[in-house]
Amino acid sequence: MKKITMLAVIPLLTLVTINAGTSLALESSGTATFTLTAFAQKYLDMTVSVKNHYTPTTTNTTTVIKSKATNAPIDSAFILSLLENSFKTNFPSGAELIMRGVGSYSFLVVDSTGTNLLLDAGSVLSIADNVSVDSGRERLIQRTSRTGTAVSGNNTERVTEYATLTYDDTALTTKDGTPTNFQLSGILVEVFSENIGIVEATQSVVLRGAGTGTIRGKINVILKGTVTATLSGVLVD
Length: 237
What we know:
Elements lengths: L5 E2 L5 E3 L6 E3 L4 E26 L4 E17 H12 L8 E7 L1 E7 L5 E5 L4 E21 L2 E21 L12 E15 L4 E16 L2 E18 L2
């Protein structure tokens, strides 16, 4: 079964931060939700105490060495703050991160109305599929008459992919001068449902994975968690 590029049923967005004054038609899009945990080393092998115990014949020295890890949540608001740093910008209150695409995905930032595009973040933040397997069923009805041919039916698919989410702003000069470059790899499941008659479809996307990288200059950060979105749109050839 063939996937078709989609256009979102939300209004066309006006590009106000990049190429101001032009319009951009979006592919199938929906709100992206990040639910990640970042683990990092706070300190490693730090000597916290040294004590000596003396006897008439010996000296016993006890040294205590500690290491400590920290963890912190990474949600969609945190990703928005990373994008602000990467692109040297500030988003207005209510700005939202959305995902677009089919199979492979990129990310956009829109305002609270959903009608103004603030940033196309695809050059920094994206999901690429590597290997996928597909299962599904398509029912196609074609009616031909003197006036023409009408098509109806439905198509449902479940696609399981090994996918990688990448955040990489190392080619940019960031607001605070620190880079962010991490990857999250794992299993992405996309459930796709299309009404062929009215050429509308919805996609449920869930990526569960783990990875590592650098966040705002902090190296050797370990990440795990999920990225989810529900996308909808009108199919076009």
